[in-house]
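Much of what follows relies on a compact textual record of a protein's fold. The record below shows the convention in full:
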Amino acid sequence: MIKNFIIKKINKDILKNLNYKIKTRFAPEPSGILHLGHLKCIYINKKIKNIYKGIFFLRIDDTNVSKKKLFFCKKIIDFLKKFKIDYYYYSSNKFKKLYIFSKKIIKYKKSYIDSQKIKVFKINKGNYKILGKKSIFIYRTTKENLYLFKNMKNFKFNNYEITLRIKLNYKSSFFFLRDPIIFRIIEKKLCPLYDFCNSILDRMDKVTHSICTKEFENNKILYNFYIKLYNKINKKKFFPFQIEFSKLLIKNFNLSKRKINKNIKKKKIKYNDVRLLTIEGLIKRGIKLRILINFIKKTDYSKKNSIYNINILKNEIKLYYKKIRKKNFYKKNFFIIKKKKILCFLLKKKFFIKKKKKGFFKIIYIKKKSFIIYKNFKIKKKKYFINIMKIKKITNFYNLGIFKYFNKKFFEIIKNKPGFV
């Protein structure tokens, strides 16, 4: 059982309320690919579900329509199904409920519609050094605000021409508390902002603990404010808690989604590039999901930032294949790699192979801890004749074999008599 500050906090909450059913969620933005940092968050949510027999679901955060891509949505859903999530949905499915609640906020006189231009809006909001200024449209009546908000829904305005803002402290030292925006128009669609959508959907879904990384620690004030406002208006008491832990940092490797997306736009790399520490890139190398989970178990869940070395992952690969070796791993001697056109089989003194295509192929021979690569052979009467004298040995098993030759997506296992494929 994992022992960290997250589980200790959950145990305290259970002692206060014995009829407390744990419910967690994972809410990624479908604008990029999942990496090892995401897998760390998924693993702790899944582990909490197993310990407390709770609920764990996926909510795809598509509040920004311009960044949403269906390709990434499908990849995220397919990957999360491996962890046996209870259900999943898109946050856009509940935009109507958020629209109804935002109407109540206008009637409660806690929000107003601002129709400032973008340049004026940026000047009035100020910086971290300069304090903000009051908007001219803060004194609008409730009828006028409701009328304009209805026109926002009917798309009578252009992108970012008009916004709905909450009345907070416009002179606050915290930049994000200066009358933050709740709703805006993007691509002729009325969309809420992430902070507003995330906090209120957590409250509607009755999420007990929202577990996220330390970058959302500053937004915790807004998260708590929106939930308190929801409880005041609807006269309810349930309150979800946000818990933050440190990011996963690996030496000499980049895990930032923004920096990866920049290189993809410049066409320097692809989303499933082997050089990246994304989940698809690592699986393409041949590293299985079980190995990645074992690597994450070695990392700590704490608030202190710590940098890990990639050698921890290499050691986990070695340990995994040592265990499989005991289970007759080397009985599977027959497979074909399609892309590189490599044939692998058990060599004997004299044997023939059936004809597949004309030309030369690279042939690999597995024997306990070594690969024997054979490159040249001749074609004689629709058969390949192999000369055993021309052989090269490679002793380093892990440096060569794991990343290239044990990925099921790139080869087909064929069980047949020795000498034939």
Remarks:
- Residues 328-421 have pLDDT under 50 and may be disordered.
- The chain is about 35% helix and 20% strand.
- Residues 330-413 form one domain.
- The chain has three domains: 5-90+197-248, 96-192, 330-413.
